[in-house]
Amino acid sequence: MYVIIMGCGRVGAELCQLLAAEGHEVAVIDYNEAALTRLGPAFRGRKVVGVGFDRQVLLEAGIERAEAFAATSSSDNANIIAARLAGNVFHVPKVVARLYDPRRAEIYRRLGLVTISSTTWGAERIHELLTHGALDPVHTFGSGEVCLVSAETPAHLAGRAVHDLTIPNEITVVALTRDGRAFIPLMGTQLQAGDQLHLVVLATTLERLENWLGLGEGSN
């Protein structure tokens, strides 16, 4: 995949390295040439000095053949302008913009632009770790409203079926790992003590799930 990253700050540079390590072809744009040194001498991607929402700069970076674009600069305005150019003018299939102001993130999400608010995500993540440490989310979706969590099936749930742990639109068992092998269970699949449960859960339902698993303060 050919990916263009606008902004070579800490987030942009880390993203470049992750994508390059996975074998993707990466181009990075930054108006500050010195910022590009964050990538180190081993980086073999393309480096473009210029303003990331300038049409000519985007063309120089290869926007016409880009399959993905991420705007990760420190300016919300620059990120939004660049992301909209990439998506609406150059029709890049996958576009993501990093935003600091969560109020703006909601506005642009309504316009169909995929945004990541580091402020909101960070606050949600810290909240999860402080208040639900017994069930540390493996991954979060959106701004933290939905979590993917893993937990070992306790003895008191052995023999119960997957549907007993399911609440529509709140808790779903998406996979089980048993004896080192993962599989997608049916609603009638019986749980065994020691099974590793993998669940998608609403963040507001985490406390209830902890109590079911015997992990919450009021579960005993």
Describe the 3D structure.
Strands 3-2-1-4-5-6 form a six-stranded parallel sheet, with helices on both faces. The chain has a five-stranded antiparallel sheet with strand order 7-8-11-9-10, with no helix packed on it. Helices cover 29% and strands 26% of the residues. The chain has 220 residues and is an alpha/beta fold. It has two domains: 119 residues, Rossmann fold, CATH 3.40.50; 81 residues, Regulator of K+ conductance, C-terminal domain (Alpha-Beta Plaits), CATH 3.30.70.1450. The termini are far apart.
Number of domains: 2
| Level-1 CATH class name of the largest domain | Alpha Beta
Helix content: 25-40%
Count of alpha/pi helices:
6
Largest sheet: 6 strands, parallel
Compact overview of the structure:
With about 220 residues, this protein is of the alpha/beta class. The chain contains 6 helices and 11 strands. Helix 4 (about 100-110) links the parallel strand 5 and strand 6 (about 115).
Secondary-structure map:
Layout: E1 2-6, H1 10-21, E2 25-30, E3 46-49, H2 55-61, E4 68-71, H3 76-89, E5 94-99, H4 102-110, E6 114-117, H5 118-131, E7 139-141, E8 146-152, E9 171-178, E10 181-183, E11 196-202, H6 206-212
Parallel strand pairs: 1-2, 1-4, 2-3, 4-5, 5-6
Antiparallel strand pairs: 7-8, 8-11, 9-10, 9-11
For the structure shown, list the relevant keywords:
220 residues; alpha/beta; Rossmann fold; Alpha-Beta Plaits; 2 domains; six-stranded parallel sheet; five-stranded antiparallel sheet; 6 helices; 29% helix; elongated
